[in-house]
Amino acid sequence: MSPSLLAERLALAALIVAWVVPAWWLGASTVAGQGFALCAGAVALCVAAVARFTASPESPDGSPARSGRMAPLLVAGCLAAFLALLLCQALNPDRLLIPGRPVGRLLALDHTTWLPTGIEGPFARLPRDYIHFANAWRHLLVAGAVLLPLAALALLPRRTALLRAILAALFLHAVLFSAFAFVHNLSGSKAVLWLVTDPSFHLGAPQFMGKNEQAAYQVLLLAAALAAWAAPAALRPWPTLCRRPLWLGLGTAIVVLGTVTTRSRAGLGAAALLLLAAAVTKLWPRRHRWRHHRRPLLAGAVLALALGGGLALLPPVRATLGRVAELARQPGDLLVGGSYRRILHDIAWQMTLDRPWFGHGAGCYVLLFSTYHPRVPAYMEALRRDHPDTNRPVHTHADGDWIEFTAEYGFVGTALLAAPWAVWLATLARRRPLAPATALLALGPLLVLAHGWIDFVLRNPAILGLAATLALLALSATRTEPAGDAAT
pLDDT > 70: what percent of the chain? Predict the structure, then answer.
């Protein structure tokens, strides 16, 4: 085995560790889990660099073409500028948190006025306090845990065998992760891994601290599983496995069960859209033969309706559908996830208006909440109506990443975060028509990015890292799978 091939396999192993272990480690929500992801990503990046620069230039390894470097440079530039913004916020605080009730008060500090500023607050939490904090240094840790594995993946060659191995690893992880989640969801437990509970996360999920974070991660796993199922023969995992379509179908069904039972309305809706997209991409290339296969198609439609009805009978799904019906009474609230989220968004918007360009600093929402919620009287009205016993009116997040990003990083920082995704989408659009596996890999991150409008899911490194991984795999798959090729 050549040194390049050995380094490539070691890098892949390190990447799998970086993807899998933090997700099981309380959903990569702790400092320890995020630090582990950072270290595993650093190992993967170093070994991937060895594999990349020791590869024979003559060998057709499927590496990215040397042409079209403008898009990667633009993405790298935006990410570097965003990291510089975070570092500036960390090194140039203009306020210091003095702990107190409900959170504390802010003391003004000397700072460089013409540079972006931050708030010098807790890295994780105060001693014996259940409120979760995150300052600019913590955000840098999360960013590193996302970017290092992604950079390692970008350095690896785009050979079909390697992409097939990555899809196989993600599929196996999705099945095991979802099987545990399904059993946990049916049990009704609110203790993460049946072991860990926390009063600040009263809606704990199987592996993640919150059900909406669990749902976002499950949606990405479902996208990966459906892509493996819909991939052409060259990319489909385990080419020598006997009755491979059956096993892939059963595994995907387990991922579906783990996804739809998370008690998240956004997760249930995203799962339904993914399954619909998988059905459409499977059937569309054969549309000219529909008239000759009407009976099988009708039988399949009846079976799908029966399975959907069966899923609706599961207690977690039934409870979620009931909460969806509540939103249906106020259709305008569907866009923000409910009237209470609308209020939290308004508070974040008030923060943004005071410092629109570079924001107040990473982790500012919980620190500034007591100062800004009086500007939105509807908050206390809703609190007294729905939670009359609450005496600590504090929220750690705005229940919407994108609006909270504007409060933390300003419009400049938020634009730097959004630009790489816009470049990716534009690049993918130029490669149409997309094959089914590519379309499903791309749809998963797009749904999670939309989910970030109504929940705080994009600040979790396991979720954001897997979304970026699927986005990069979607681009890689366009070079190896024929457009329009469906699973056979």
Answer: 85
b vs e for 320-342, b when ≥16 Cβ sit within 10 Å of the residue's Cβ? beeeeeebeeeeebeebbbebbb
Distance between CA atoms of residues 406 and 392, nearest Å: 25
Cα distance between the two ends of the chain: 33
Residue 188: predicted pLDDT: 87
Q: SS3 letters for 21-32?
A: HHHHCHHHCCHH
Which single residue is written with the structure tokens 């995992």?
237
Q: Is 118 helix (H, G, I), strand (E, B) or coil?
A: strand
Per-residue pLDDT tens digits for 401-448? 999 999 999 999 999 999 999 999 999 988 877 888 999 999 999 999
Q: Which residues contact 225 (CB under 8 A, 6 or more apart)?
A: 170, 171, 174, 175, 251, 252, 255
Instruction: Kindly state the average pLDDT of the residues 212-237.
Output: 93
Whether 259 contacts 178, CB under 8 Å: yes
Tokens encoding 41: 């990503």
Nearest to 177 by CA among 132, 210, 222: 222
CA 242: distance to chain centroid?
33
Nearest alpha carbon to residue 262 among 400, 451, 403, 18: 451
Q: What is the pLDDT of residue 468?
A: 97
* DSSP run (H or E) holding 105: strand 104-108
Are 33 and 187 in contact by the 8 Å Cβ rule? The answer is no
DSSP string, 413-480: HHHHHHHHHHHHHHHHHTTPSPPHHHHHHHHHHHHHHHHTTTSS-TT-HHHHHHHHHHHHHHHHHTTT
